Amino acid sequence: MSKRIAGPEIERLIQLLAKVPGLGPRSARRAALHLIKKKEQLLQPLADAMGEAVEKVRICSVCGNVDTADPCLVCTDPRRDDATLIVVEDVADLWALERAVAMNVRYHVLGGTLSPLDGIGPDQLNIKALVDRVAGGAVRELIIAVNATVEGQTTAHYLTDQLAGFDIKVTRLAHGVPVGGELDYLDEGTLAAALKSRTAF
Question: Looking at residue 8, which CATH number applies to its domain?
């Protein structure tokens, strides 16, 4: 049995930080100690920001993004193309695509992928709202941007089936060799996907 070296408040801070993705128990202890040492500059402002986030952050009722407004800033931006809708698994994926500044489009967050083994079926995901958005008539192209996992591919096929009756173009992200990638360092699955997704030169 390990000895306690700090009060329950500090132990609780460490335990909560350890639940953040990317932080294990050791990293959480280091982060907690750093925050405590910088109490005025970091810990107090962080606590204030988190309290404000708890009060103000909402899930967008249109696309599933997180923001302090509902509808979110992405959905209310008049400069975005209503005809193109990118479907992603999670808000983190939406943010990643936005950072890439690749397209000025609308999004739809599913909230995960189909996974029968984990008890996640269509009813647990934001699929009905997606079909309703497409049925609205504004969408001309739907880009499925899910991860290249078994669950992601299963979800992509399910979505394609659900949208088969609509007059829209359904596309998906290309998979394969990343920009700047060297063939020798890529795994076989990535190389196979790159060959299947080859384009004219």
Answer: 1.10.8
User: What is the mean pLDDT of the segment spanning 8-25?
Assistant: 94
Token pair of 164 as six digits: 């088969």
pLDDT tens column, 20-69: 999 999 999 999 999 999 999 999 999 999 999 999 999 999 999 999 99
**CB 88 within 8 Å of CB 107:** yes
Q: Do the Cβ atoms of 183 and 191 come closer than 8 Å?
A: yes
Pair 173, 102: CB distance under 8 Å: no
Nearest Cα to Cα of residue 90 among 73, 65, 61: 65
Whether 10 and 93 map to the same domain: the answer is: no
User: What is the DSSP secondary-structure string of the chain?
Assistant: -PPP-S-HHHHHHHHHHTTSTT--HHHHHHHHHHHHHTIIIIIHHHHHHHHHHHHH-EE-TTT--EESSSS-HHHH-TTSEEEEEEEESSHHHHHHHHHHT---EEEEE-SS--BGGGTB-GGGTTHHHHHHHHHTS--SEEEEE--SSHHHHHHHHHHHHHTTTSS-EEEE---SPPTT--GGGS-HHHHHHHHHT----
Q: What is the domain-level CATH number for residue 98?
A: 3.40.1360.10
